[in-house]
Amino acid sequence: MTDAESAPAEEVVLPPLELHDPLPDVVEDADSLQRTLEALRHGTGPVAIDAERASGYRYSQRAYLIQLRREGSGTALVDPTAFDDLSPLDDVIAPAEWILHAATQDLPSLAEVGLRPRSLFDTELAGRLLNLPRVGLASLVQEVFGLSLAKEHSAADWSRRPLPEPWLLYAALDVEPLVGLRDALETRLEEAGKLEWAHEEFEALLAFAGPAVRSEPWRRTSGIHKVRGGRRLAVVRALWEARDAIARERDVTPGRILNDAAIVTIARSVPRTRQELRDLEVMRSRGARRYLDTWDTAVSQARDLDERELPTASGNDSDGPPPPRSWPERKPEAAARLAAYRTVLAEIAERHDVPSENLLTPDAVRRLAWDDVGGGDPDAIAAFLREKGARSWQIGLTASALAEARRALDV
């Protein structure tokens, strides 16, 4: 082996993405908003838009900064908390296509301040349909432009005021590449024969209102699998609900009041007195002890519940089928259908170079298999998939193949 072959590869340092224009001031009063509206009105083409939240600090998912960029208009950084009504902004940009990255993250918070797209292009979703290995904004900027994009402030407390200049620079850079990125990805989609797929996906996103509301959200407590028995699960539920009420009232992310690990620890020990609760190691922090009486009341209420009021291990958070791992024993014919469907979908995904999860939602596939929808009839399967929100391109690729796989099981 030569010295050249044995030497480690030199790391390639990409040049950073930079702003085309100077960093703008934050729009936080009526006069600056009016100037921004005029600039956007005289711009051309689509509008790149992004929103910054304070998810790790606040209970709400409200937007604390909205970034916009349009050709001929430049970049605008709007503080939505400074305005009672942003409908004038919506009126100006409504006729244009909006470019977002990972639209489902931003659409609910944008809608909360009155901003709703009538047409959009999602660069992350475009990257997924192209089956690119990484579809984060920084990765796409590197893939398409050969530039680096720092993401060090993505988890910052954007409710802070005033916002530091490095954060504002980071925010402006998030919309800087979106117009060019959109055009490059559209070209790739057209070359791959997937542009119509993308149009259907983007159209469906216009109706997105937020993630589904769970009937028993407390079951999402991290580490709950360590809790055994209905009584202890009742403690988890009581503590989760008490914490949620405090977090909602204070607009603080729940984990900053009492983290999930503490809830699980308390539930597993089921302290019988306030002192026992106070003596737990997870109660030593000032934040946890601040609401000690609330936690004590929650534990007492769970401890005193009638057996009939205790939650079950499986719960009823969904009207769907049970976890697939239980199917071979509970309903082996459904397990066979699911395995066949998954095999078929994997083959279709590979053939069309698209991720399997973008063909059909896992929930739709599980329901199809568990209930034996259609029994091998492609029209019935297509109708079911359409009812579950599948787009025409997805149904066209999968319905007949799934029906054939189902019929093969009867041979």
UniProtKB/TrEMBL annotation:
Residues covered by the HRDC domain: 229-309
Segments for region (Disordered): 303-332
Residue runs in coiled coils: none
Database matches in InterPro entries: 3'-5'_exonuclease_dom, Exo_C, HRDC-like_sf, HRDC_dom, HRDC_dom_sf, RNase_D-like, RNaseH-like_sf, RNaseH_sf
GO biological process: one example: nucleobase-containing compound metabolic process
PROSITE patterns recorded: HRDC
Record Gene3D superfamilies: HRDC domain, Ribonuclease H-like superfamily/Ribonuclease H
Molecular function as annotated in GO: 3'-5' exonuclease activity; nucleic acid binding; nucleotide binding
Name recorded for this polypeptide: Ribonuclease D
